[in-house]
């Protein structure tokens, strides 16, 4: 597994990097099998240290965790504990559904745009053409609805766009205000 351990405006020592590799290695070996790469970023937020960890699994799924603490090792350990809990739930769901994915998740290319907010304007602009601030390449996974919900929860996202394996159409799952998960499937709407 490839590790990318960095600090934003703080120095990350060799001892912390070794600790991160050891702990993540144990967690991934126990629950994930074949992770491809891990990215761990440390930063400061006031008097606290923030640890953000992202691990890409060979199945195409991604797990993310974030935690703050007054000490840098405590921030990472709590972050690793969150990630371990997510992976344990993920593994339990796979066992409960009795559907081991034989092939890696198929990914399709797409573009993602960040639009500038029109701050201070009370009237609607005449041209209605938004200003594009950034453009990024994104990948849309081909998943079942259950896997999409699981991926959304693992990533801690509120919305996930995916290609439905069953219908072949582009679908959306999202976290509703009432705490439930919504699913938009344009192929079945009339």
From TrEMBL:
**Lineage summary:** Bacteria, Pseudomonadati, Pseudomonadota, Alphaproteobacteria, Rhodobacterales
Q: What's the protein name?
A: Ribosome hibernation promoting factor
Q: Extract one GO cellular component term from the record.
A: cytosolic small ribosomal subunit
Q: Does the keyword Cytoplasm apply?
A: yes
Report the subcellular localization: Cytoplasm
State the UniProt keywords alphabetically.
Cytoplasm, Translation regulation
Q: What assembly does the database describe for this protein?
A: Interacts with 100S ribosomes.
* One GO BP annotation of this record: negative regulation of translational elongation
- Tell me which family the UniProt entry assigns to this protein: Belongs to the HPF/YfiA ribosome-associated protein family. Long HPF subfamily.
**Signal peptide bounds:** none
HAMAP family (alphabetical): HPF (MF_00839)
Which gene carries the instructions for this protein?
yvyD
Domain named Sigma 54 modulation/S30EA ribosomal protein C-terminal is located at 129-182
Transmembrane is among the record's keywords:
no
Q: List the Gene Ontology MF annotations in alphabetical order.
A: ribosomal small subunit binding
- State its role: Required for dimerization of active 70S ribosomes into 100S ribosomes in stationary phase; 100S ribosomes are translationally inactive and sometimes present during exponential growth.
């Amino acid at each position: 597994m490839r590790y990318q351990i960095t600090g934003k405006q703080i120095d990350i020592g060799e001892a912390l990097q070794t600790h991160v590799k050891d702990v993540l290695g144990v967690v991934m070996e126990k629950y994930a099998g074949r992770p491809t790469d891990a990215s761990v970023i440390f930063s400061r937020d006031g008097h606290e240290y923030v640890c953000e960890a992202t691990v890409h699994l060979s199945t195409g799924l991604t797990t993310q965790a974030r935690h703050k603490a007054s000490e840098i090792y405590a921030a990472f350990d709590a972050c690793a504990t969150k990630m371990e809990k997510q992976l344990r739930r993920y593994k339990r769901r796979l066992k409960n559904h009795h559907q081991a994915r034989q092939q890696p998740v198929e990914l399709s290319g797409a573009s993602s745009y960040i639009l500038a907010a029109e701050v201070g304007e009370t009237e609607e602009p005449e041209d209605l053409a938004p200003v594009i601030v950034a453009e990024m390449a994104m990948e849309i996974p081909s998943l079942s609805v259950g896997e999409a919900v699981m991926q959304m929860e693992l990533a801690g996202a509120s919305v996930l766009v995916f290609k439905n394996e069953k219908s072949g159409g582009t679908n959306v799952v999202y976290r509703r205000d009432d705490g439930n998960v919504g699913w938009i499937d344009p192929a079945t709407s009339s």
